[in-house]
Amino acid sequence: MTFSPSLEARFQKLLSSYPPGRTRSAVVPMLLYGQDELGYVSQELVEEVARRCGVTTLQVDEVIGYYSMLHRKRLGKYHVQVCTNIACQVVGGEDLYEHASRTLQLGNKDTTEDGLISLEEVECMGACSWAPAIQINYDFHHYVTPERFDRLIQALRDGTYGQKAS
Amino acid sequence: MRYNEPSPLEVRVISQRFDLPDSTSIETYLANDGYLAIKKVLEMTPEAIIDELKTSSLRGRGGAGFPTGLKWSFVPRNTGKPTYIICNSDESEPGTCKDRLLMENDPHQLIEGMLIAGWTIKSNKGYIFIRGEYRYLIDIVDRAVAEAYDRGYLGKNVFGSGWDFDVYTHTGAGAYECGEESALLESLEGKRGIPRLKPPFPAVVGAFQSPTILNNCETFSAVPVIFRNGGSWYASLGTPKNGGTRLMCVSGHVNRPGVYELPMGFPLMRLINEVCGGMRNGKKLKAVIPGGSSSPVLKADECDIPLDFDSLAKAKSMAGSGGLVILDEDTDIVAVALRTMKFYAHESCGWCIPCREGTNWLKRTLTRFHEGGGTEQDIDLIGELAANMLGRTFCALGDAAAMPTAAFVAKFRDEFEARLQQSRAAVPVPELAVV
CA nearest B222: which of B128, B320, B104, B99? Predict the structure, then answer.
């Protein structure tokens, strides 16, 4: 399986980051970074990670089942994650998630038909003091109101969404 | 960058560089007291280092508040095994968002703290375990690590001392449980994040089955300033047995939520009224969750309390991770209790039964209750279930789920009862027909 040169370099570095005989340690990072490039954890990626880390595909699979950020299903190009945990909840996080679900016509972990946007209700993402918060892929957005949410979604659809966190 | 305005009441010790231009660069760090502590420490014996840390009264900022000097002293010497320094940056306790700022704004401070730990036990490898959601921080920390290598502060022959120390970042992939230290170590080894049976503690059998110093990101970040200014100076910033400052993450119904660096023992009501500008919309305070979602709630009349580990423990709550959720009079406590339990049920790793079954049973009971289908017995059942989980699980997640739940029910029983009345009024119970 071939990856982009930067990801390949990252994988090489990962495999030499752990003590001798401990390449299994690279399984989770390789899966996450691989998913970043592929959009999901494909069977091919599972087999490749298993081969490179010297473990069985079953050992890779059981890890994928455990970590909530690893997805066997392809996500949208933009994965919109709305936090509804308590710090966000008490300032409108649950309402924001419902707004998102209604306006995007998506249930939890669903993806739009064109593959552009997927939605997930997530646990605390570490933006409690600037709540309610969402993440679009890895970008944090703080103090998100329904109106601001709509503008962000419009930008995703228009292709004008910048990668800068706000 | 900072996401909220600083407060003039802050005591900026570990956040002193946050607002400097280009604060993540090694030049900025060096121009502002950076890497001075490690140079001092390289002249010190392990005993002297640990004594200084004990003098500082620094306690673990991840949540447990264990004395850091004592923790470091537990690492056995000369076992012939390699040793490791692990930084827990898997910040995921609901209400907590401080490690994010420490890595985003001052990664070299963290690296220097790990260097000091490394030298103390002559370890050669350190790992910074960063939660997957903080992907952008891995790039920031990796850049800082690379800068430190370029200067000879990491790698072979650190500062010409003849000692080698490597630091690597490692990403998690979404699991609250991995913030528990032994589960973190399993995750670091490429497995499911399931806790280990303790003892042995990580100091003796930690990463890769070897002696390990494992601390929270904020704890390591506080270490350099302790050696720059002295342990007794650091201790004097706080209260007895609670040295220094900590980043307090305030969320909820205040006018100015934010992360503020304040001395240990800072009064909670001053935090709300002076630092955070009082309650939003002139509402009354109902309750405070003082140390992340695992900590038992304090009612408004219990909030006249200093924010340190011992005072909050005495009030049967905990200072935990420093995440304070401030709740006003309009807050639906049943809804908050339910959301809290949904979280723990989602995050329970499933390894031991009281936690796996208990969190889900509680979630279902609370859901039914919240939706209006509750019964009188449910209120006691919730309290009983929580009490039966306490102390009966491998790791603290079971307790973390049980403690706040028991407190919500005990302290806000009237709200649970009112909910019952409301649902009865909404769904009239039909009279039994007499045949």
Answer: B99
Cα atoms found within 13 Å of the Cα of residue B2, Cβ hemisphere only: 18
Is the pTM here over 0.90, yes or no? yes
How many angstroms separate the CA atoms of B251 and B258, rounded?
7
Spatial separation of the C-alpha atoms in residues B21 and B289, rounded to whole Å = 34
Query: B430: which 2 tokens?
Result: 């039909």
Tell me how far apart the alpha carbons of residues B91 and B99 are, in angstroms, rounded to a whole number: 7
Residues B226 and B105 in one domain: yes
Query: From the candidates A33, A129, A134, A140, which should be mutated to test the interface with B, based on the most B CB atoms within 10 A?
Result: A129
ipTM: 0.96
User: What is the residue whose two structure tokens read 């995921």?
Assistant: B92
* pLDDT per position as a tens digit, A22-76: 999 999 999 999 999 999 999 999 999 999 999 999 999 999 999 999 999 999 9
Q: Tell me, yes or no, whether B268 and B356 share the same domain.
A: no
**CB-closest option in A28, A91, A142 to B190:** A28
The Cα of A134 is separated from the nearest Cα of chain B by a number of Å equal to 11
Q: Which two tokens stand for residue B216?
A: 């929270």
Candidates A19, A87, A130; nearest CB to B94 = A87
Residue A164 domain-assigned (yes or no) = no
Looking at the structure of chain B, the number of domains it has is 3
- Alpha-carbon distance B291 to nearest alpha carbon in chain A (angstroms): 12
Residue A50 domain boundaries: 5-66
Examine the domain organization and report whether A58 and A130 are in the same domain.
no
